[in-house]
Design a protein that fits this description.
Pfam families: adh_short_C2. The protein is of the alpha/beta class. The protein contains 8 helices and 9 strands. The chain binds nicotinamide-adenine-dinucleotide. The site of nicotinamide-adenine-dinucleotide (NAD) has 29 residues, from α1 and α4.
Length: about 280
């Protein structure tokens, strides 16, 4: 399963994940699910949307940028699936509620919410506080806004699964300022929502990805890629698919007794000490 370029297993980047039935009859909403322009090099949101669709779900692809939402839906359509493009800013409650309602009107129900939206900002040593507010607003408050909009629909379906996307920057210092702080908040919010909404049959879990090779996270060229390969215990580079497969697991009934978890998807990077990593770099 490793090293393929078909979207199968980890490490692949092409947009053709294998099909299955794990989410047949289910409806998912992926916030920040837009993508483009290269179907061979996907961001995390697009890979998650494609994988959930390939497992039979109708997928609402919510994004700030209409063309990015439509791009992912077109790719889902080319796979034989159904994507519903939705435009909203996750910080805007009314827009997000309208988008969630539109998805349920179009597809009949809601079972899964993936909160993938995330933006970065200034380093911690030179923060512009307006930008700080925007980063926390999108990454942390946005996760609450979409979850709150989804809750009545998840309850109407008899329960469901919310998958939040945090970051290794939440648990290891990285100089990322508001980004790391907001992503740490996402981990805390995950446990808190799991506590509050478990009685409704709503599971809430969180993925904690390490440094990935994605269009937005692609920094440092070939040298950056080599460093990303070395800076973990498997000595390989992570892709959007690695996060997507973990999100699929948390979305499916197979993870039905897992809630309030924060699962690292980082090839062990955050488990090692800095001194322990030095011989590997
Ligand atoms: N790429 C990495 O190395 C990495 C590492 C750890 C965690 N993450 C997290 O994974 C997630 C995905 O990152 P990615 O780099 O793969 O990006 P991505 O390709 O999944 O794109 C994110 C999408 O979010 C959309 N978006 C941004 N602001 C929005 C808003 N206010 N409302 C609605 N949509 C909005 C963008 O238009 C974009 O399409 C983020 O939460 C990020 O913080 C990424």
């Amino acid at each position: 399963m490793t090293g393929t370029n078909t979207g199968e297993g980890r490490g692949g980047t092409a947009a053709l994940p294998p099909h299955g039935d794990r989410l047949r009859g289910r409806v998912a909403l992926v916030a920040g699910g837009g993508g483009g322009p290269d179907p061979g090099f996907l961001g995390t949101g697009a890979a998650i949307a494609l994988l959930l669709a390939a497992q039979g779900a109708v997928v609402g692809v919510l994004d700030l940028a209409a063309e990015r939402a439509e791009w992912t839906c077109a790719l889902i359509g080319r796979q034989g699936g159904r994507g519903v493009p939705l435009v909203a800013d996750v910080t805007d409650e009314a827009e997000v509620e309208r988008a969630a309602d539109a998805l349920v009107t179009a597809a009949g129900r809601l079972d899964v919410l993936v909160n993938n939206t995330g933006i970065t900002g200034d380093a911690a040593d030179a923060p512009d506080l307006r930008q700080w507010d925007r980063v926390v607003g999108v990454n942390l408050r946005g996760t609450m806004v979409t979850s709150r909009a989804a809750l009545p629909h998840l309850r109407a379906s008899g329960g469901g699964s919310i998958v939040n996307i945090s970051s290794a920057a939440a648990v290891r210092a990285f100089g990322s300022g508001a980004y790391g702080a907001s992503k740490a908040g996402v981990i805390a919010l995950t446990a808190d929502l799991a506590y509050s909404w478990g009685r409704f049959g709503v599971r809430v879990n969180c993925l904690v990805p390490g440094h990935l090779h994605t269009p937005i996270g692609d920094r440092g060229g070939e040298e950056g890629r080599e460093l990303r390969r070395k800076a973990n215990l498997l000595q390989t580079e992570g892709s959007a698919w690695d996060v997507a497969w973990a999100a699929l697991f948390l979305a499916c009934a197979e993870s039905g007794w897992i809630t309030a978890a924060a699962l690292p998807v980082d090839a062990g990077a955050t488990a090692a000490t800095v001194l322990g990593m030095l011989p590997l770099l």
